[in-house]
Amino acid sequence: MSYGIAFLSIIPVRDNPSDLAEQTTQLLFGETYRVLTKKKKWIEIIIDHDQYSGWISAKQHKEISQEESKAINEANCWRTIELVYPLAGKNEHIPITLGSRLFNYDGLQLKFRKERWTYNGQAVEMNEDPIKVKVLIKAAMRYLNAPYQWGGRSPLGIDCSGFIQNIFLCFNKYLPRDASQQASVGQVVHLSAEAKAGDLAFFDNEEGNITHVGLIIENDKIIHASGKVRIDHFDHYGIYNLDIKKYSHKLRVIKRLI
Q1: What confidence score (pLDDT) does residue 85 get?
Q2: From residue 198, how far is each of 184, 192, 206, 218 by CA, in Å?
Q3: What top-level class would CATH report for the domain 133-256?
């Protein structure tokens, strides 16, 4: 088995080996993966932090050794909290987005093999400290007005579960990729009146499948990605969209993770 790392701002991950295939998620800078299959132009991967699989362009693959992959994933790392900020090398720079992973980083420089890259933007060190709700919500607010994009995970385009996953990743909390998978994590909050800031609310469609998730920021407000990352009213029925003046999502379950 071979290994790789995202060394670009964003790498689309698709459900089939084609530029026309659906984007199911994205790799952000610094995230690692294992290679499952290689084709001429495409590589099938499984992402280390959430075990999500898909296809990336071989042109965007950067191979690393098993030892490098292990060292990167076992070392302390940071997550960026700037919307977009350059990682500057000797003769080039890489614009990296909110939520990207800075590995082998000392607060100023990232070291990769013989190269040194400088990052002067804001970043938070991932550690095992308990998550503070106010800080979590502050991180979520940075995504406000980011446009919705199916499979997206950046402030330039993000979906509902990618939004939630990224927020918690900044605080060393690893969640699955899809809303239906995320709903399996945490403790059930049985009444919406008992919900607290920091809880996750999940919503289902007419078939009863969980298709949407948002972060409760007050007992009657929720931040979520629907058209864009936005704040709406939340109650026991679901999400009341303040623009269209009607309910847009029906509540299924509330989960407490922190």
Answers
A1: 95
A2: 16, 13, 27, 8
A3: alpha beta
Answer whether CATH 2.30.30.40 is correct for domain 1-74. yes
What percent of the chain lies above the pLDDT cut of 70? 100
Cα dihedral sign for 176, 181, 187, 193? Answer: positive
Which residue, 220, 186, 226, is CA-closest to 203?
226
**Structure token pair of residue 61:** 């693959």
As given in the structure block, the two tokens for residue 240 are: 């009341």
The 10s digit of each residue's pLDDT in 198-213 is 999 999 999 999 999 9
Mean pLDDT computed over 170-182: 93
User: Is 173 a residue whose pLDDT tops 80?
Assistant: yes
Side-chain-side CA neighbours of residue 104 (13 Å): 17
User: Per residue in 58-87, pLDDT tens?
Assistant: 999 999 999 999 999 988 889 999 999 999
Beta carbons within 10 angstroms of residue 199's beta carbon: 23
Catalytic residues: 160, 212, 224
Domain boundaries, the chain: 1-74, 76-126, 133-256
User: What does the H/E/C string look like for 89-133?
Assistant: CCCCEEEEECCCEEECECCCEEEECCEEEECCCCEEECCCCCCCH
Task: In whole angstroms, give the CA distance from residue 228 to residue 250.
Answer: 18
Q: Which residues contact 28 (CB under 8 A, 6 or more apart)?
A: 6, 9, 10, 96, 97, 99, 100, 101, 153, 154, 166
